[in-house]
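hey so i finally got around to running the thing on that chain from the lab meeting. sorry it took forever, my laptop kept dying and i had to restart like 3 times. anyway pasting the input first so we r on the same page abt which one it is
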Amino acid sequence: MTRATFGCKVCGDFKKVALGRWTSHQPHIIVMLSALAHFHGLEVKDLKEIYRSFQIRRMVCREHYVDAASSIAAAIEAHTGTFHQCGINVDGVVTEASLTKLLPAVVLNDLKSFAKEMDANITLTMRNVAHFVNDVLARHGLRGVTAATSNHIYVPAKREAPRKRKKIDEVVNHVKKLKEEVVDTTSREETRADSAENTEEYDPRRSPLIDVTSCDSPAHDEDAQEKSSAHLDNDLQSTQIEANILDKFYLVQGRMLLKLFRFCPSCGNNLSTSEQSTVSFTAIGSAPIVQYICSNCSSSTAMTQRWDGQPAREIL
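ok and heres what got predicted. didnt touch it at all, straight out
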């Protein structure tokens, strides 16, 4: 069985999903593409086409984010003599003069010129660049040499703080517990499915979803679910979907539904192959509930993430 891949709009290569990253904030996209054009020779004509394709979320190679941020960090070091191991600290900095000490204007102006090539209405700020570099440094780290203007960027190896080590242990233990529940649930599901196939055919007039198991967990927080729904609606705004089909209910087999959670909905991490990731599937009546842990997201999000097939107020 072949692993899932994606086609990168920046380099045109096909990579494993684990090596990709979803595009997110528009300022981050602008800074990344501008840095790739300035430091790595990305053609202006290609720059415009790639930027237009990023009007909807796409997965690109993670290394492009790292290349862009590392090049900016090297340029900062070349002009100021140093690049702080914790990134560009703009919190509490209120004056442009203070910002220029952390991010020289010449670096920003170089990026601005390419940003204008993408969109004349774009105004790239120092904070946009600083937040981009800090985000990449925190999530992926930086490379040693990526720009000709600098011989090195010193980024020390990450050390696990005792508090983080404790959280990792909690995640591992929680994953083991959920995996035991998933094995038990799957075994009961297969037994019921085999029994049903041997006795009678499927009747579509019955419950719209297979009865996997009952859910004894407390009701899901409606506020959190409304936020999740709002986030999904925002993602769907850029796609062409008829509004009248979004509020309807559909018959979906449980096995088919679980295929949607083979990869993490947030970062694209392969949940089926990761040792510290798991997916559990339960139901309340006809309402499916999927709970999953992504080892890639666990350090920045709640330990267990939950997806409900119906709004909480409609679950009976």
